[in-house]
Amino acid sequence: DELVKECIQEGTKLVQAIADSIFNLPSTEDADGPLVKLPTPTTKLPREKHLPKPKPPTKWEEFAKKKGIKKRKKDKVVWDEQTGTWKRRFGYDRVNDDKDIPIIEAKMTDEPGVDPFAKRQDDKKKRVEKQEKNHLQNLKQAAKIGALPSHVQLAATALPITGTQAPPKKVTKDELGNVAGMAATSTASGGKFDRKLPGEKPAKKQGKHRKFLPVVEGSGIGSREKEQTENVLNKLISKHSHEILNAVTMYNVKKEKKARNKRNQEGKSSSATNKLKPKKQLHKKNGKKGPGSSKKGKAK
User: Considering the domain boundaries, does residue 183 fall inside one?
Assistant: First the structure.
């Protein structure tokens, strides 16, 4: 607590000294308030990074300077005569796209049997490769002077150029021995049948032989496949036992729900069919009547 109080007191003194020195400077009135012009700094702070070196000109820049070619800004949109619309100069749906040309006019210098569309694609591929090669050459020239761009310096070790000026690290004897031992034991036999050099010491780290189960199951090692499979399944089941139980319960619930819905539908369908059936008319069976039966019921 005492240390914090002392730090606050010292900070307050420094801030008060800066404020006093600022208010002692001549000021001018403004609509927003008084304005003070700060004096020129007397203490020069050193730079963290060195001043960037000028980038060497590329071959095209040297050629353009020699011939007096000036760089002019091109429009992003160009009129396309084939479609009669404005299109981009580069990128998707650009002007004079090779995919938009259905027919290529043959020339007298064309060889018979050569596909002009495939030839145009090959020429474009060669132009891209040449441009990439020139780009790498320019980076090499810049790396010799030490004027690589900032975005290339971060990935200079990954580029096929000598961008880093750091000296190569010397490999020690132990590291060479470890690498030689790893190379010697990298074969399937673990270096057992390899030819030894005169004076070569045995490898420190012997390779491990991988043991595979036989294809045909039998006694001995052949019966271990079933045990390994059971162990893997037991681990999986024990690890995800709660998920498996949840899945089983959900399956049982869905199964019971389907069976219940099926029974309800069958009951509804049976009741509907009974309602649609016509009702049978009940007819009384007329028994044999005697000759005096018609006169029965007539009373005078």
Answer: no
Whether 166 is covered by a domain: the verdict is no
Say how far apart CA 265 and CA 272 lie, in whole Å.
Answer: 10
* Residue 209 forms part of a structural domain: no
Residue 150 per-residue DSSP state: H
For residue 87, the cross-strand partners are 78
For the chain, the maximum distance between any two Cα atoms, rounded to a whole number of angstroms, is 153
Domain of residue 9, residue span: 1-26
CB 186 within 8 A of CB 173: no
Domain membership flag for residue 106: no
Q: How many domains does the chain have?
A: 3
For tokens 């429009």, the residue is 75
Query: What is the C-alpha to C-alpha distance for residues 203 and 193, in angstroms, rounded to an integer?
Result: 13
Predicted pLDDT of residue 105? 82
pTM (two decimals): 0.33
Residue type, 273: T
pLDDT in tens, 31-41: 888 888 888 88
- Which tokens belong to 230? 């059971």
d(CA 274, CA 268): 10
Q: Using CA atoms, how far apart are residues 151 and 235, in angstroms rounded to an integer?
A: 50
**200 within 8 A of 175, measured Cβ to Cβ:** no
Last residue of a domain, one of 95, 128, 145: 145
> Do 77 and 88 touch, CB atoms closer than 8 A?
yes
